[in-house]
Amino acid sequence: MNIDAVSSAVFDELGPGLFETVYETVLAGRLERRGLRAGRQVPVPIEFDGHAFGAAFKIDILVERRLILEIKSVDQLAKIHLRQLTT
């Protein structure tokens, strides 16, 4: 399955200007209808300086526990978006 094609189709159908959560919700639903597990807002715990943080980060969509999708609703990607992905 081409997840990029599914996400492009969702954007094409909904159009620009919506909140990220709208695209996230619809895309996760589309993936699930195609038989994939798509968890939304999956917490990522971290430990830093001896302290544990249960949900320091959240993955927008986690597909089949292997693929992370970071949803953006912007006109143009910026360096900060790349930093978010690499973190």
Helical residues, percent: 25-40%
Record field, number of beta strands: 3
N/C terminus separation: 27 Å
Structural class, please? alpha+beta
In sequence order, what are the helices and strands, one letter per element?
A: HHEEEH
Q: How much is the radius of gyration in Å?
A: 14 Å
How much is the average pLDDT? Answer: 93
Task: Quickly count the helices.
Answer: 3
Describe the structure.
The protein is α+β, with helices and mostly antiparallel strands and 87 residues long. The protein has one domain. Helices cover 39% and strands 31% of the residues. A three-stranded antiparallel β-sheet has the order 1-2-3. The longest helix is centred in the first third of the chain and has 14 residues, at 20-33. The two termini are 27 Å apart. The model has no long low-confidence stretch (mean pLDDT 93).
Produce a short descriptive summary.
The chain is α+β, with helices and mostly antiparallel strands and 87 residues long. The chain contains 3 helices and 3 strands; from the N terminus they run ααβββα.
Supply the key terms.
87 residues, alpha+beta, three-stranded antiparallel β-sheet, 3 helices
